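We now fix the convention by which a protein and its fold are recorded. Here is one such record, which you should read through line by line:

>
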Amino acid sequence: MGLFDKLFNASSSANKGGDAAKSSGELSWIDLNTMEQLEEIKERSKTKPQFIFKHSTRCGISRMVMSQFKKDYQLEETAADLYYLDLLNHRNISNAIAEQFNVMHESPQLLVVKNGVVVKHDSHGAINNLKLETYI
């Protein structure tokens, strides 16, 4: 089991925990680690909201925001796809997100993608103030 698995109990869209994961407080993250996934996110966003959480594993603020986000996240697993981007390992993907979605890079940052465009984004503590259910 890798570090990502230990921290988040998921490493790909194939590793979905269903209601058991939801009830244990774990989220079903999809590891965002290839540029090709950005096109998939755009396409999937036409039928289901896509959330991208950009996280710096060396930043205490990012860890704190991530922890609070995990505690507060109340959406059903089927309501949206939830992507996790490790900025230290995939800064090139973060740069591509900034360019393709016309959103300035920040960390931590949460983006809401619908119909191929970012309809909302926030960073730092404001992430946990987003009412994600309004984008479903």
About this structure: The first strand starts at residue 29 and ends at 31.
